[in-house]
Write a structure and sequence with these properties.
This protein is an alpha/beta fold and 265 residues long. The protein has helices at residues 21-29, 53-59, 72-85, 106-114, 136-153, 168-174, 183-193, 218-237, 239-253; strands spanning 8-14, 32-33, 36-37, 41-46, 63-66, 91-94, 119-129, 164-167, 198-205. The N and C termini lie far apart (40 Å).
C-alpha cells in the first residue's frame, strides 16, 4: 500500500554526485511507515555527469534518465517526462543528491500535503543547520529573493529550499518552464499566483558531500543570482496571463479554486 494511500515519487536532479547519490536513493527507499515503504519510486536525472552518477543511482534502485543540457530546471523537466511515461503519482518530492537533507524528515513534508496543502517547502532554518552548511552568499541571496517574493505577493515565503513536496496534479497545473536556476522560485511564485495552498516546514541542513556546482563557483553564484531574480521579474510581469491559463485549466479539470493556508503578511 502507498504511504497513507498516496503514491509518492522522489525526483533527484544530479550532476557529478557519485560520492553521495547512492546514499540519497537508499535513504529514501529505506523510509518505512506502518511496515510499508514511504517512497514508491525514485527518479534520478543524470545531468551530463562524468563520474558514473547515473550507474550508481541505478544500482541503488532508482529509475535513471539523462539530460545532457546542463541546468537544474532541465534535469527536473526531463525527470517529469519520465514520470509521465510511468504510472501517475499523487505526490512528487524534489530532493538534492548531495546528502544535505535528512530523508526521514520527508514524512513531515508529505503530511503537510495530506492535510490539504498543494506545495510544502522544507525551510532551512539556522537552528537546524550544521556549521557551514550554507555559504554566506547562499544565505544572503536566499534572504533577498525570499524578501522580494514576500514584498511583491504578500505571502510569508522565507526560503527557496530545494527539499519540497507538491501534489502531482498541482505541479502539472503550474506548467513549469524554467530550465536553469529559477526552477524553485518559479514553483513557489506560480503556486501563489494560482492561489494554491502553501506551507513551509523547518528541515535540517547538513554540509553537502562534494563541492556545489552552483554556489561553489563564482560563475554559478552569479548565474543563480540573475536567474532567480530574472525569473521573479518575469513571473510578476506575466502574472495576469498565467492566471487566465490556470483558470481555464481548472475549468477543464473541474478543480475548484481554494483559499491558501498561508495568510498574507
Amino acid at each position: 500500500m502507498p504511504y497513507k494511500s498516496q503514491n509518492v515519487t522522489a525526483i533527484i536532479p544530479a550532476f557529478n554526485e557519485a560520492k553521495s547519490i547512492a546514499g540519497v536513493v537508499t535513504g529514501l527507499f529505506a523510509l518505512i511507515e506502518d511496515d510499508q515503504p514511504v517512497v514508491d519510486r525514485v527518479i534520478v536525472c543524470d545531468n551530463a555527469s562524468t563520474d558514473g552518477t547515473g550507474n550508481l543511482a541505478r544500482r541503488a534502485g532508482a529509475t535513471v534518465c539523462s539530460e545532457f543540457r546542463q541546468g537544474y530546471g532541465f534535469a527536473c523537466l526531463r525527470a517529469l517526462e519520465t514520470l509521465e511515461r510511468q504510472n501517475e503519482s499523487d505526490i512528487v518530492v524534489f530532493v538534492d543528491g548531495d546528502l544535505s537533507v535528512k530523508p526521514e524528515e520527508l514524512t513531515g513534508l508529505l503530511d503537510g500535503i495530506l492535510v490539504g496543502n498543494d506545495l510544502v517547502v522544507g525551510t532551512r532554518v539556522s537552528r537546524l543547520q550544521e556549521q557551514h552548511a550554507l555559504g554566506f552568499h547562499q544565505r544572503v541571496g536566499n534572504h533577498l529573493a525570499s524578501g522580494l517574493v514576500r514584498w511583491l505577493w504578500g505571502v510569508n515565503v522565507s526560503d527557496l529550499g530545494p527539499f519540497r513536496a507538491i501534489k502531482y496534479k498541482s505541479l502539472r497545473l503550474l506548467a513549469m518552464e524554467d530550465r536553469r536556476f529559477g526552477w524553485t522560485v518559479e514553483m513557489q511564485v506560480k503556486a501563489i499566483q494560482a492561489n494554491m495552498r502553501y506551507l513551509e516546514i523547518p528541515v535540517s541542513t547538513k554540509r553537502r558531500v562534494g563541492k556545489s556546482k552552483i554556489s561553489g563557483t563564482i560563475r554559478g553564484t552569479f548565474g543563480a543570482f540573475f536567474g532567480i531574480f530574472g525569473k521573479v521579474a518575469q513571473l510578476y510581469l506575466c502574472e495576469a496571463k498565467f492566471q487566465v491559463r490556470v483558470r481555464r485549466a481548472r475549468i477543464l479539470l473541474n478543480d475548484p479554486l481554494q483559499k491558501p493556508h498561508n495568510p498574507p503578511l
